[in-house]
Amino acid sequence: MTNHSYWRYVQKINSEKTEFTNPEDKIYFEDATINPSASKIYFQEKIDDYYINYLRELKMILHFLPLSNKNIRRSVELCQKTNQCNTTTIRYTSEELKSKGKVIVIGLESQNTEFENIGLFVIEQDKNSATLENYIMSCRMLGRTLEKTCIAWCINYANKLNYEYLNAKLIKNRKNIPVHNLYNEMKFEYKDNNTWSIPTKNYKFENKIIEIKDHTLITEPT
Fold first, then answer.
1. Which of 37, 54, 79, 113 is the Cys-Cys partner for 92 at CB 3.0 to 4.6 Å?
2. Beta bridge partners of 63
């Protein structure tokens, strides 16, 4: 939670002259000007808990599907139009996507929204590793933990295919600033030539918010 969110929350309480139902809330709020650090930590945790509960109530379901005639048009559209969550900003055509090693399309549905394809992984493979050549997600979906949950799925997917490492390409530019720190935050290690890497074995990512449905056909790498 950002500093801005914390102080906006405190100001909202003050402006509304909130009657605190929890005595501990009142103590920390009144102490904000005397001991701002402790108060900030306390209220940040409460805001975080509220946001997590809000996300749970959305009942989001992520679907991971192979590229097909049903979703290729939308996949090309995402490649052509998405800038912010587009790790290399490569603009694939339909023929180029069909020629790639693996293309996994990401779909989302929730309590309030119908199913929609929102992103894709473009993965190239060699003997020992899989390389995430591009990761694309609709900018409208950022900020709901979706972008990190999808990366975690991709790491485990590479492990199921018996790859020791998942490499990932990241070419930073002014348009894709929201993903500049994504791989670092997901514990990838920077290698060279815009490439990050992470071991796939025993990778753990806590996800208590989003249901996952994997529609991909798991096969051994050739």
1. 79
2. 107, 213
- pLDDT digit string, tens, across residues 37-48: 555 554 455 556
Cα 122 to Cα 104: distance, rounded to the nearest angstrom? 7
pTM of the model: 0.77
Q: Do the strands 61-66 and 129-137 form a parallel or antiparallel pair, or are they unpaired?
A: unpaired
- Are 91 and 79 in contact by the 8 Å Cβ rule? The answer is yes
Place of tokens 């992103």: 119
The residues near 45 (Cβ < 8 Å, ≥ 6 apart) are none
Residue spans per domain, the chain:
3-58, 61-214
Residue type, 125: Q
113-152 pLDDT, tens per residue?
999 999 999 999 987 789 999 999 999 888 888 999 999 9
Query: Per-residue DSSP letters for the chain?
Result: --HHHHHHHHHHHHHTT---SSHHHHHHHHTTTTSHHHHHHHHHHHHHHHHHHHHHHH--EEEEEE--TTTHHHHHHHHHH--TTBSS-----HHHHHTSSEEEEEEEE-SSS--EEEEEEEEEE-SSEEEEEEEEE-GGGTTSSHHHHHHHHHHHHHHHTT-SEEEEE----SS-GGGTTHHHHTT-EE-STTEEEEE-TT-----SS-EEEE--------
How far apart CA 218 and CA 157 sit, in angstroms, is 8
Nearest to residue 162, comparing CAs of 196, 125, 216?
A: 125
CATH class entry, domain 61-214: alpha beta
